[in-house]
Amino acid sequence: MLRRTLFLTAFGLSLLGGAALPAHAQSFTPVGPGGSQQSANVVPLKDIFARLKERYGGYQLDADLYSVGNGRSEYRIEWMARDGRRLRITVDAQTGRIIRTSGG
Fold first, then answer.
1. How many other C-beta atoms can be found within 10 angstroms of the C-beta atom of residue 72?
2. What pTM was estimated for this model as a whole?
3. Per the structure, how many domains does the chain have?
4. Which range marks the domain in which residue 71 is found?
């Protein structure tokens, strides 16, 4: 009985796939072509989020990593600022530099 309960609990949690976590608590690891992790080539998102939180307050709504050619990548982040503005922020993934901010 205990084994069945544990199995059903594990199965139920696997169906959630992290959906029960708030967006800002979910982990993100950039993955390149063929499934290779690019984490050695990019600034970790947690570091980017810490900088954005310091600058704007608030929290992350969404984040994606895009290849922009010439081996360069950028994060496109949706951010809810402390003052209620919804920002779209583009960050150079290799340097962590903010390229542009729009919205609000």
1. 13
2. 0.63
3. 1
4. 42-104
